[in-house]
Amino acid sequence: MSAEAPRPAEPEPAEAGAEPATLGLDGKVALVTGATRGVGFAVARKLVAAGAQVILDYAHSEADAERALRDLSGLKGSAIARRADVTSPEQLHTLLAEVRERYGRLDIFVHSVASWHPMPAVGARPDGVRADLSAALDPLLHGASAIADLMAYGPGRIVAVSSSGAHRAVPRYVGPGIAKAALESLVGYLAVELAGRRIAVNAVATAKLDKGPDTPDPATAAALAARTPGGRLTTPADVADVVALLCTAEAGWIQGQVITADGGLGLRA
Fold first, then answer.
1. Largest alpha-carbon pair distance within the chain?
2. Annotated region Disordered: where (predicted)?
3. What residues act catalytically?
4. Do 57 and 33 contact (CB within 8 A), yes or no?
5. What is the pLDDT of residues 212-263, one digit of tens each?
6. Mind listing the domains of the chain with CATH numbers?
7. Which DSSP category does 36 fall into?
């Protein structure tokens, strides 16, 4: 028998003024895929800081998972790490079954897994493109039904992380570009079918990220930062902030949208 986590009271819209630190997410149960590095980790950190109980999914590095848990210790919420390749239906459903057993429900699902096989569009390797498509689509294609069942008592939030490469031709980015475009289309379809169950499905897209010392191609990064109206590149924390906002009670009427968080870079001609 599962030990269901206490469900936090859901505020009515008129009285939903949450503390800035928690955004009304205190006590929520969240599963973040690809959560031990990059944007996924930034999202996990934001949600744990807001008081959520967060399951950090990862597919490979135990060291990254251990580091992530150390970095999250002491924050308002709680975090556990679970290893599962969520592009595998079997591993995904095992992970979701553990969520049900441990918490009895799921309030937030953030899809932050990505794959990138650099290649041009002319002469692209089909196997690499298929791998990028699998990383973008399979977690929601295989998991949507089980995720929705875990959110049965609502409201629920599903947020996918996308990229401006879904709509612009980025050099050697054809695989993830096609994959993210398909992901954004899937977000719309899921939003239509799940809105009646009080589950909001949306995506957050961004451009090139500032990864600090690990940012590739510093010259290109500097040029893009100079073009960004906000005066710098987007950071993983910027994306995490928008993901968290879409998880709030006040965002419940936002359905099937792709919110761009890029400091205004996409507005440049």
1. 57
2. 1-21
3. 173, 180
4. yes
5. 887 878 888 999 999 999 999 999 999 999 999 999 999 999 999 999 999 9
6. 23-263 (3.40.50.720)
7. T
